[in-house]
Each structure stands twice: as structure tokens, then as C-alpha cells.
Amino acid sequence: MAIESMHINRKKIIKVLLFTLMVVGLFMLGANQYRMKWWPFEDGFESLSIDEILPDQNAKIGSVFGTENLRVYNLPIDDEFPSGPFEILGNKRFLFISKCGEAYFTALDDNDIERTQSPQRLSKSDDDDDDAKPLVYCQGSSGVKDSLRVNNSLYVSYIVWDDMQNGARLAVSEFTLDIVNSRLVYKRDIFTSNPAIKEPFLGMQAGGKLALGESDEIVYLAIGDFGKPQGVQDTSTSLGKLMKINTKSGTVSLYASGLRSPSGGLYFDHEAGDLWETEHGPRGGDEINLIREGSNYGWPLVSYGTMYERDGNGDYYGNSYNGHEGYEKPIFTFVPSIGVGSIARYPKSGRNAYWENSFFVAGMATTTLYHMKKEGHRLVYAEPVLSGYRIRVVKIDADGRFYLKTDHNQLLMSE
Asked: What is the CATH number of domain 57-414?
């Protein structure tokens, strides 16, 4: 019995030693990852403040078809959720626009992104009059929705408050982009949605995504339902519509309808001539749509999600949920939702030939970037390739370099 007891105790001792070694190993791994200076290899904890224990400022897009190393930059901007858009200006310069309409011109040096000018508030006035009425209605999830650079013009979509009608509208204005002097100069309004939406409304469902079309004169604008589904199938309203704007002639035409919340992304594929749109479903049923002129995408009558919005009589608007019969079907649906966001295609001229004919799509709710392979007019799968970042904007340049802006004031950029 004594021998058996000694044998059992020896097993316990071995287990304790193995557990201790595992804990020490994990500690060493964490110390290395978070750059902690710890004895006996460095100077010790006594000289290290908690602010110096920083996560690694690198990230990686990891796919079975290839990888892309990213550098994570903290942005010198003051923004709120949901954060605003940004533009690549060239020569390592960027323009960030906050949700509440402050423009930040910045430049990248070896280690940081720094402001080149004090923030400029978007305004129709030439001066920075602090007492002037703000151009952007920035309450709750309202605010700036998107921006689009076309040569020396910058188009900005945003929520504006109509004092006469006591309601909110989605507006698009054109600004002259003065990169040399880091300034935006108001030029004109090119679109205002109809009707003005009374409170309460959902600014997060206003849409406002912009895309440059088949020429520099064509701009597409996706408008959401503002949380008012009853107006989407009404052709006299702008709600749930996709508009085609000719910026030269000033004409605005209805291009497609039946949208719910195109708050994620609108992307025109200049290589294929296709217009892609992402939108949030009601509960599940996030969609990626290939937009065809004259098509109706069915909201609020059909959805692959679960309906929870009712009309004035307490009835659901549609009776064909978990289906899309009679209307244009999405190319890809996420059930459950991922909080589908920005979408961009990897170019044929990119550095990774395996990603040709692929899209990259942000999942904001899942804090994940997805790689999606395109076959014909189908997207055949969603491969998670980067996690841990709530990505608001996805841009990929002609060389295949990634620029990913997060809701936490970060820019992830290809090294």
C-alpha cells in the first residue's frame, strides 16, 4: 500500500509541475506579445508603467489564398460611433471626416499619422464661425454617412435638419478639395431626400453610401428607410431607394428600390461594370446585392431575416419572411447577421494573384474581415481573414494595398 501511495503522489507532483510549466510558458508568451520588460532578460517591472504595456501595432490578413501584413496606426482625430469616412489623397496624405462633420487633413511619417492642419468644420460659410448653424445634424446615430473623392471635388453625404418641416433629411453636398492648403470649400448641394422624417427615426438606417459610377459625372447614392418601412415601396418618397446622380447636368433618377439599411457599403466595380450594395437585415438576413437598374429588392415585403417592425395596425409589413419570392434576390445572405459593412474588390493589378476576382467585406458586429470569392455573378463563400477590429471602411488601391478604418479611430494599412 505504501508503494502504491508513493506512486500516486509521484503522479500528482508531475501534474503540478506540468501545470506550473504551462502557466510560466503562457506568461512568457504574453510578455513577449505585449512587449513587457521582465526579469531576468530586461530591466524589470519596476521601471515599467501600465501605459507602456501596449498591444502589438501589427496585424495580418490571413487567408488560405495568401496573407497581407498590416500596420495599425492610431488616428489623431476626435470621432464618435458610428465613425465617419476617409479619403486617400496620395503622397501619404489622408482626409478623415468625423461623424459630426470635422475634416482632418493628415500625413503619414515613418511611425505616426499626424494632422497637417487644425480640424475644419464642414460649413456652407467660407469662415469658421463657431456661432453658425452646423451643417451636419449630429444626434444619436445621425451625422456624416460617407464621402467620395472625384478629382478635385469631394462629395459628402450627411443628415441635415429641416427646420421648416421639423424633420431630418439625407443630403449630399459637393466641396472643392484644396489639398495644398488642407481645406474644403463648400460648392453646392446636389441632393436632398424626401420627405423630411419626424422624430423618432433611426439615423443608423439612413444609408447615405456613395459610389463613383461608369464616368466621373455619375454618382450613385443608396438611401435607407430611416426606420420607416411604410415609405419604401412608395415611389413618391426617397426612402429605400438607390439614386443615380449626374453631377454635370444635375439630374437625379431612380435606379433601384426596396432597400432597408444600406449603411454598410456601396461599390462600383469598374473592371466588370457592376454595382454592389450591402445592407443590414431586420434580425438576420444581412444582404450583399448586385444592383440592377429598375430592380426592386423587396423591403419591407420580403427578407431572409426575421421581421420585428409592425405597421400602425400592429401587423407585420410582409408575409414572406425567410424568402424573397417575387423580388430581386440577394447574391449572398448572412444568417445570423454579421453587421455587414464596407465592400471592395481586390484588383487584377494587385500583388496577390490568388485574390483576383475576390471581394473583401467587413463584418462590424463580428469584428471580422471576410474574403469572398466571386464566380460569375455569385459570391461562393465567406472566409474570415482578420478578426478583432470593428472595420467601418474598406479601401483597396490599384496595387492591392489595404486601408481599413475602424470605429476605434485606427487605420490598418498594408506594410
From this structure: 2.120.10.30
